[in-house]
Amino acid sequence: MSGSNRWPAAAEDARRLRDRIACVLRGRIEDGTYPVGSVFPARRLFAEELGVSRSTINSACRALAEEGYLLCFPGRGRGTVVLDPLHPPTGPAVVAPTGEARTESWPRPGSNRDTANHVAAEIRKRIADGTYPPARRIPSVLQLAAEFGARTWLVRQALTVLKEERLLYSHNPNGHFVDPDVRKARSTAAPVPQGAGATAVHHGDGDEPRGYVPLSPGGTGGVR
User: Fold this and answer.
1) 76, 182, 196, 205: most buried, per Cβ within 10 A?
2) What share of the chain is helix, strand, coil (3-state, %, to 5)?
3) Which has the closest alpha carbon to 70: 102, 46, 100?
4) Whether the model pTM is above 0.85
5) Which residues 6+ apart lie within 8 Å of 193 measured at CB?
């Protein structure tokens, strides 16, 4: 038999195997073995249990994601959450349990604007509740990107919005800091318009102006 005849048969076998694995996993979701809202087990565990390759498991999970049974999250330490396809979650994030009595809010894969808005909203919340105190440096762009499973340029976009709101300022090459006058900034009637806020008011000798400070041409804004 020629190779041109073998390949279609092999591809068909792969699809059938994927469909069988997807059927098994779908059944476990529907019977409550993997409850809606729970974190789906690691793919390698299924590969070992069912005696198939990781690529077959990945293919089956993609099929279930297309059907609305699973939602996969990018980023280190994240995974896949079980969904009810008839009642999909709404909003920019999904709350997923990550341990005993512990949950994390994971940003849903979506548009770039949704992702940037979610990152900005979460940082804004942390500034408001004191997680990020005034005059203190916040995590770096790379750290925030890893936490939120987002591209670094989307994190920088979110930080730019917060600087325009005078909640953050940049101090190259040390990173991004919560504005010492953040309480006053939060009490203002409206955010500073695009490009505004680069006033001559300084926090102290050697500090950058309060408000919007353009990122460096390299795009890192001095964050290492």
Assistant:
1) 182
2) 40, 15, 45
3) 46
4) no
5) 164
Residue closest to 47 by CA, chosen among 74, 18, 76, 27: 18
pLDDT digits (tens, 9 = 90+) for 40-94: 999 999 999 999 999 999 999 999 988 989 988 765 556 788 989 888 777 667 7
Question: Residue 171: beta bridge partners?
Answer: 175
95 forms beta bridges with 105
Q: Is the dihedral of CA 181, 183, 188, 194 positive or negative?
A: positive
φ and ψ of 13, to 5 deg: -60, -40
Nearest to 165 by CA among 93, 117, 224: 117
Q: Which of 149, 145, 146 lies closest to 159 in space, CA to CA?
A: 145
